[in-house]
Structures are given as C-alpha cells and as structure tokens.
Amino acid sequence: MSAASQPISDAQFAIAIQDLPFENLYSKAAEIENSISHLTRSNEQLQKYIDSITSDQSLSEETRQEGDKDCSDAIHENVIVINRQRDRIQLLKQEVERRGGRWHELDKEHKQNGNSGPTSTNGELAVAYSDAGSSRRLTDEELRQQMLERLAEDDHGEDNGMHL
C-alpha cells in the first residue's frame, strides 16, 4: 500500500455514512463483505503456494525455510485490510441501529457461495430496510408492483423532467 494513499479513518468513515440512505448502508456492507471474501480466498491461495514451497523437496533447505516472503507479506497486509473492513461493517451496523433500524446479517448461503449481495437464487430480492427497519424478501411480482407504483407516483410530479 502506498504511503500517499491511506484509507480514511474509522471516525471519518462514520461521519461519511451518517447521511446515507439505509439501502446505501446495506449496499456498502455487501460490497465490503464481497471484498473480504475475495481477500480471504486470495490468502488461502497464497498460503497454499507458500506451503508448496516449504514442502518441495526439489528446492534447497534455505529456500524451503524462507518460503515466499512477498506472499507472506501480502497475506499479512490482507489480514490488516480484512480487519479494517470488518470494523467498517460494524460502523455501518451501528449507524443503522443508531437510526432505529434493524441490522440484517447477510444470507449465510450467499456467503458460502462467495456472493454477499442482497439477492437470492429463488427469484426474490432481499429487502434489508423498510420504514419500520425490519427486513424481508420481495418476490419478483411484489418488486414489479412496487416499481410500477413508484413510477406512477413520479408521473404525478410537478414536472416531467429527468430526475437524477
């Protein structure tokens, strides 16, 4: 990691997320979980490579003892990043709860499959927020109906301009 490009502090992150809508908080958590998953997989692969070096009898004893310092350093750096990202998820959770919302845990099945996004495989969309702060899943039909209702509400607006 470059000295010129340091991550923002936890305090700065907590301030930055204060005004985000619930859906953005959950989306950010899913993004971070995905990153953690990739870093964890990367560490497993790097460790397997290091293990292959240390057990390779065709290499000198010195080389086997050293392993691969670059890979070891990468694993160490990844662990630091993973811990920082877990702290960020905790900050997101605290922000949701501070607002009176209920934090959802990402679907265990998706975590096991390497997907941490809010969608499921059975045609439903996980909705992690609502006015009451509870979570539930929408079927495709319910999602379509809600989208149609929102579009109808938008059509009753003051102007017909594009809203970004």
UniProtKB/TrEMBL annotation:
Chain intervals with Basic and acidic residues compositional bias: 99-112
Region (Disordered) location: 99-138
Bias type Polar residues, positions: 113-123
GO BP terms, alphabetized: proteasome regulatory particle assembly
GO molecular function, one term: protein-macromolecule adaptor activity
Name assigned to this protein: Uncharacterized protein
Organism of derivation: Knufia peltigerae
